[in-house]
Design brief:
The complex is a heterodimer of chains A (491) and B (143). Chain A is an alpha+beta fold. Chain A contains 15 helices and 19 strands. The chains are: A alpha+beta (491), B alpha+beta (143). At the A-B interface, helix 8, helix 10, helix 12 and helix 14 of A face strand 2, helix 2, strand 6 and strand 7 of B.
Amino acid sequence: MPFGNQVFKKPEFKKISDVVWEIPTSFKQGMNVPARIFATKKIVDAMDLQVYDQITNVANLPGIQKYAFCMPDGHSGYGFPIGGVAAFDPDENGVISPGGIGFDINCGMRLVLTNLTYDQVKPHLKAIVDKLFERVPAGVGSTGFVKLTKDQFRKVVEEGAEWALDNGYAWKEDLERTELNGKAEWADNSKVSPKAIERGFNQIGTLGSGNHYLEIQVVKPENILDKELAKKWGLFPNQIVIMFHCGSRGFGHQIGTDYLQTFLSVMERKYGIKILDRELACAPFNSPEGQDYFKAMACAVNMSFVNRQVILHRIREVFSGVFKQDAEKLGMHMLFDVAHNRASLEEHEVNGKKKKLIVHRKGATGSYPSGREEIPKLYRNDGSPVIIGGSMETGSYLLVGGEKSNETFCSTAHGSGRTMSRTAATRMFRGDELQKDMMQKGIYVKSVSFSGLAEEAGGAYKNIDDVIEATHLAGISRKVCKLIPVGNVKG
Amino acid sequence: MPYKFLEDVAIADVAFEATGKTLEELFESCGLAVTNTMVKDLDSVKRKIVKDIEVESESIELLLFAFLQEIIFYKDAKLLLFNKFDVRIRQMKKKNRLKAKAYGEKLNMKKHELKVDVKAVSLHNFQVKKTRSVWKASVILDV
């Protein structure tokens, strides 16, 4: 049985630059393109070897363009590694694969501003976190306050954030500050199984668990790294901001599961595609099955936008209640909402030719250089805001799409990346002790699960500063600001 | 314990190995492992509700995949946790059919010490295998 004692070999890297490492096609039979790892030497040397096995499996997929990429936060997952990016040309039998997106479709980050300073919030911090914990359900089996019938839910997943706006859960400007304006237009609920609907229709407004969280953060003056852009985007020294991380919940998970099975049954029989890991099950993008999945995936994209929008509504209510002021008066504008688990149809240049490609990002964030049409008008001249969440102990980053991101199909890292398994982390750390330690460091954390808390200890992750530095040096995203946690609701 | 969680197989996910003297026992062990990923103490779950689970598949592996997927489905759709399964499997020429009874109760955050939510069963390195005297499975859960 290979489980647990599988042997993976370390590739001989071709060094392209200090932060780009290439695995040539000779590494593994059937690689259509080389793989490229974006990371410093320190990070590459420490990556688990399974990452290299998984990213070179991706390089085997039909229709892949240029390179199979792995971002500096890369770690082994299933199918694609986490941090994996690959683009496929539908005109060259390019595929779509749920294993390149993840089960948590459109899982992403949202960053919300306030006009409050840390000094103003500090006396209320515990009250805010406790109230958020109560109002934003988290953990296994949590259900939301939005009561919908299954038929209504089918409408919601086609309308996305527009539904939230029509029902009083959004400000108009929120939609302008969300990728895709909060709506994947190509969503078609007839491609979604009744099971997916049943798993998700009562989960709007819930965080989920694992690495999902809601955090109160502070903009320390020394952490503002691009003063001009930070100011333009509404950040100021000692400001309090709110960041949260969640996805499409059971709804997205079931869609991923359903289509994994669909693709497995047709992939080889109907399309003659052979893969190296069943989690890479796929179908040509331009096949009936590929198109069905793309339309079902879009429903999960919309569900996640609505989920984050309803959570934002709740956050505004909580702050408004604590400070006895309207959320508008508290300056609670959303800065941006960006996903890190999605496939998108985008135009990119390949060998001097413009092509429409299906870009898969799994644990990788869209990072667009200025001028790209994917960026909302508000930010188009600056480059897209990139929100990267670190571990709950160490901090997170706001960045901007860098000029060099054209090399990675406009992608960058999405987090700090785990280095320790969950099981190992629960042996190493204790949730209750961690909570006390964090309190001493000035972070008030509340969780439904102490073991869940231990799994997310900062020590189980790579150093976020190293990961960000690698993306900055590679020019795929540039630092704007580091954000330090002071309060955390963990799922 | 008919299953054990593994430390160094899946970094972000949960990996376990399970065993059973029969195929049915193996499936029951795997079902318990899935529940135990979500709730710390299986004994804290009382057997108040019985659900019938029926799935079929061409391969034994995908039969296990479908069975575990049902447990995850019930967790979200009906908020049910199970701590006992009676599994019957019929292996036929072209199809394998599973009929099971799952015993458990509604999830209660006050009563059950919850751990991490299982999103899906991954097929990465998913295996069911028979050695001389025992059935073995290896599974990675996306959490």
